[in-house]
C-alpha cells in the first residue's frame, strides 16, 4: 500500500499542467487538479489522461469541447466547484467513453439535454440548487444516476411552492408530472396569445367601421350642404 501511494505521487512528465499533478494509477494516467483554486478547466491536459480530478476548485462553467481532445478519458470529477452553466457541447467527444461523471455539490440549476446525449457514464448530481421542471424529470428518466445519491437531487425551485425543498424522486413518486404541467402551461400561453390577437382584430374592425361611418356621415352632410340643382335653375 505504501508503494502504491508513493507511485501515485510520482510526477509523470513535463506535459502536465502547472497547476496539476500527473501520475500513474492502475496502469493509466491520472491527472490530479484537486483544490488548486482553478477558475476554469486547464487547456493543456495530456491527451492520454484516463482519470481527471478537478474537484474542490472555483470553476463556474464547462464550455463547449472542454474535454474533446481527451480520447481516453473514463472518469471525470467536477464536484465541489461553483459550476452554474454547462454548454450544450460540453462533453462532446468524450461522452461515449466516460464511465463516471461527478457534478455534485455545484450551483447547477439545469443541464441542457444535448449536453448529455450519448452519455453512458454513471452520474452524480446531488447537492445542486436544481430547478425542478420537465427537463430535469426527463434527465432523471434517461440518465444513469448513481442510486446512492439520487435522493439528494432536491428541488431548490419549482413551479409550485409545495415541491420546494423536497427530493425530486419523492415528488415524482407522488404522481407529479412536470412535463404535463409544462405542456398545460404552453397550451394556456398559446390560448392567451390567440385571444390577444383575436381581440386586436376585433378592435381593429370596430375602429375601421366606426371611422368609415364617420367619414360617410361627413360626406352626406357635405352633400346636403351643397345648393340643390333646382335652386340653380331658378
TrEMBL record:
GO terms for cellular component: plasma membrane. It is a single-pass membrane protein. The keyword Electron transport does not apply. This is Leucine-rich repeat-containing protein 3. It is found in: Membrane. It comes from the Eukaryota. The chain crosses the membrane at residues 188-209. Keywords: Leucine-rich repeat, Membrane, Repeat, Signal, Transmembrane, Transmembrane helix. Residues 1-22 form the signal peptide. Its main location: membrane. Residues 15-51 form the LRRNT domain. Belongs to the LRRC3 family. The keyword NAD does not apply. It holds the Pfam family LRR_8.
Amino acid at each position: 500500500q505504501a508503494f502504491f501511494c508513493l507511485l501515485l505521487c510520482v510526477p509523470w512528465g513535463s506535459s502536465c499542467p502547472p497547476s496539476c499533478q500527473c501520475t500513474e494509477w492502475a496502469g493509466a494516467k491520472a491527472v490530479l487538479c484537486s483544490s488548486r483554486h482553478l477558475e476554469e478547466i486547464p487547456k493543456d491536459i495530456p491527451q492520454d489522461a484516463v482519470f481527471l480530478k478537478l474537484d474542490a476548485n472555483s470553476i463556474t462553467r464547462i464550455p463547449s469541447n472542454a474535454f474533446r481532445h481527451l480520447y481516453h478519458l473514463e472518469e471525470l470529477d467536477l464536484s465541489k466547484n461553483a459550476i452554474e452553466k454547462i454548454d450544450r457541447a460540453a462533453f462532446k467527444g468524450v461522452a461515449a467513453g466516460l464511465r463516471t461523471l461527478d457534478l455534485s455539490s455545484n450551483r447547477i440549476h439545469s443541464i441542457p439535454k444535448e449536453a448529455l446525449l450519448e452519455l453512458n457514464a454513471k452520474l452524480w448530481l446531488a447537492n445542486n440548487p436544481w430547478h425542478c421542471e420537465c427537463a430535469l424529470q426527463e434527465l432523471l428518466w434517461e440518465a444513469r444516476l448513481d442510486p446512492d445519491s439520487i435522493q439528494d437531487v432536491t428541488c431548490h425551485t419549482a413551479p409550485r411552492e409545495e415541491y420546494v425543498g423536497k427530493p425530486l424522486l419523492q415528488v415524482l413518486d407522488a404522481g407529479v408530472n412536470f412535463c404535463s404541467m409544462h405542456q398545460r402551461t404552453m397550451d394556456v400561453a398559446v390560448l392567451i396569445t390567440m385571444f390577444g390577437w383575436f381581440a386586436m382584430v376585433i378592435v381593429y374592425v370596430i375602429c375601421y367601421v366606426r371611422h368609415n361611418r364617420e367619414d360617410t356621415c361627413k360626406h352626406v352632410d357635405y352633400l346636403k350642404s351643397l345648393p340643390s340643382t333646382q335652386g340653380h335653375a331658378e
